[in-house]
């Protein structure tokens, strides 16, 4: 197996930096940043609406999450699994998704995956976001330097880039924890029922896993 330069010994710093920018950040990282900019500027209620927790503001964030997930996972599912426009090209497992099988909710893998994604993933993500915005709105968390200032730009830029390595480390630690005996049986096995994955399988998880 080819290891990314990040793990090569002896280290080659230039190759590492090039790999990090061109493979690790670009272009999916760029796409996530773009979605973040659009969501924050046009698809999120104002910070003031989170100062005292307003149910409608949390509901708006939840509905935004649902709409985004339907657009991305639903769009890919429609194109690749309903229209089957690529056939089995690039498909890891040649079989199509399972219907009428017992381990899945409603005995249907797609419905099971859509249920856990929309009911659990989107709502827990909305609650986390509302909590964070409530902390910001009330100055209860280390505040962001004023927007428009050089410090504000530096802070935002550093955080935007840091989120990728931080996210990777968090993903590793949290996933390793979920593969311990009890947590796997209680929670994580729900996600791994998806041996043959589809676009809706990505965040189809037990609520405990979404919290982590
Ligand atoms: Zn796992």
Distance N to C terminus: 30 Å
Which ligands occur here?
zinc ion
**What percentage of amino acids are in beta strands?**
under 5%
Number of helices: 7
Element-by-element helix/strand order = HHHHHHH
User: What is the general shape?
Assistant: globular
Structural class: mainly alpha
Overall pLDDT confidence: 91
Q: What quaternary form is this?
A: single chain
Instruction: Kindly state the number of beta strands.
Output: 0
Radius of gyration: 20 Å
Share of residues in helices: 55-70%
Identify low-pLDDT runs: none
Short account of what is shown:
Helix content is 62%, strand content 0%. The protein is built from seven helices and no strands.
Q: How is the topology of this model organized?
A:
Elements: H1 13-25, H2 28-42, H3 55-82, H4 109-137, H5 150-178, H6 181-192, H7 207-211
Helix pairs in contact: 3-4
Bound molecules: zinc ion.
Residues 175, 178-179, 188, 192 line the site of zinc ion.
Can you give a write-up of this model?
With 212 residues, this protein is mainly α. It has one domain. Helix content is 62%, strand content 0%. It has seven helices and no strands. The protein has helices at 13-25, 28-42, 55-82, 109-137, 150-178, 181-192, 207-211. The longest helix is centred in the middle third of the chain and has 29 residues, at 109-137. The structure holds zinc ion. Residues 175, 178-179, 188, 192 line the site of zinc ion (ZN).
Provide keyphrases for this structure:
mainly alpha; globular; 7 helices; 212 residues; single chain; binds zinc ion
């Amino acid at each position: 197996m080819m290891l990314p330069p990040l793990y090569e010994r002896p280290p080659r710093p230039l190759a590492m930096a090039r790999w990090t920018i061109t493979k690790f950040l670009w272009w999916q990282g760029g796409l996530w940043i773009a979605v973040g900019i659009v969501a924050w500027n046009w698809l999120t209620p104002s910070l003031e609406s989170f100062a005292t927790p307003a149910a409608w503001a949390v509901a708006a964030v939840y509905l935004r999450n649902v709409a985004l997930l339907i657009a991305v996972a639903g769009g890919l599912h429609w194109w690749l699994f309903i229209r089957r426009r690529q056939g089995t090209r690039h498909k890891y497992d040649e079989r199509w998704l399972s219907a009428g099988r017992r381990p899945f909710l409603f005995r249907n893998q797609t419905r099971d995956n859509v249920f856990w994604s929309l009911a659990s993933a989107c709502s827990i993500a909305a609650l986390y976001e509302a909590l964070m915005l409530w902390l910001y709105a009330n100055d209860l968390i280390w505040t962001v330097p004023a927007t428009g200032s050089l410090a504000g730009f530096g802070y935002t830029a550093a955080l935007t880039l840091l989120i990728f390595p931080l996210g990777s480390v968090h993903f590793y630690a949290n996933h390793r924890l979920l593969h311990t005996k009890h947590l796997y049986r209680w929670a994580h096995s729900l996600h791994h029922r998806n041996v043959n994955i589809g676009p809706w399988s990505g965040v189809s998880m037990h609520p405990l896993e979404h919290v982590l």
